Amino acid sequence: MSTNSEVWVWAEQRNGKLMDVSLQTLGKALELSQDINGRVAAVLIGDDAGALAEELVSYGAEKVYLVADAQLKNYQSNAYTRIISELIEQYQPEMMLFGANIIGMDLAPAVAARVRTGLTAHCSDLKMETIDGKSQLVATIPGFSGGMIVKISWDEKRPCMATLSSGAAEKPEPDQSRQGEIITVDYQATEEDLKIQTMEMVEKQPAATPVEGAAIVVSGGKGIKSEDDVKLIQELADVLGAAVGGTRPARDAQWVVEDNLIGSSGKTVSPKLFISIGASGAAHYSCGFQKAKYVIAIDKDPQAPIFEVCDLGIQADLNEIVPALIEALKTT
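Given the sequence above, the corresponding C-alpha cells read:
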C-alpha cells in the first residue's frame, strides 16, 4: 500500500462526549507526526457530531473525517469496521491508532484484518527509532508473561496499526484558535452493517475511586495475603486521599476492582506519587506506572524487580512499615 504521511486516530465518542483515551492517543499521534513530518487526522463516527469534530481540531487534529448518521450514535461493530477500512483504503494513512479500551480492542483487530495489515495491541509507548538505517515506528509492550519489555516494529505493510493503553500518553491542551479541515464522509447503511446492532450503552458508576487521573495511587500485589493486609492498604490510601490499585493476583483475590487493575492488562497511570506494596514488579505490572513522577516500593524480597524501577525502596514486611507510615501521616 502506497501511503501518505498522515497519522490517524479513531476518536471514540459516547453519548456526545469524546473519550479521554482517544484524546490521549491523539496526543501521541501529534508526537509521531512531528517525527515523520506528517499530519494528524481523526476519524469520528456518531450522530450530530459536528461540535465534537471542532473539539478534535482544538486538540490538534489537522483533519477530521466525520461520519454522521443517527444509526451510528452507538458503536456498531460491522458498520464502524467497514467505514474505517474503506477510509484507510481510500486515503492510505501511514499509521492508524486506537485507544486500548473495550471498544477499541474490538474494533482495531477487525479493521486490521480487513485491510490486511499488522496490529500491535496494549502498547505502553510508541516511538520512531532508527533500525538498519531507517526510521521506523516501534511499539513497547510487556511480553513473555511479564518477564521483559518487548519492542515491536512493523514490516512494509501499511498502515502501522496499534492500540495504546489508557494513560500511556498525555492528553494535549485544547486551543480554540486552531484551524483544521472537517471532511464530511457520506454514509449509506448496508444490511450487513446493521445485522448486529448495539441498541443501548449503559455506563456503570465506578465501584472505587478511579486510578486514572488520581494524584496518588496505592497499589498492592501478591504479598497482600490477609484481610488485615487489605485494610492496611485501604487505610493508607484513605489517609493520603489516594486511589487503590493492584496487580492481577490482587484482582484475582478480589480485593481490587477490575477497573483499577494496573499494568498491561489493565490501566496505565501517571500520578504524582505511586506507592507499590507487596508486588514484585514484573514488567507487565511496572509498565502501568512508568510515567509516575515518584515511585515508592515496599517489599520484603530484596531481589524484587520493583527495586530497580522505584525512586525509594523499602525492603521490609508491609506490617512493619505501613502501620508506622499511617501513624506518621495522621500526626502531620
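The radius of gyration is 21 Å. Try to locate this feature in the C-alpha cell string yourself.
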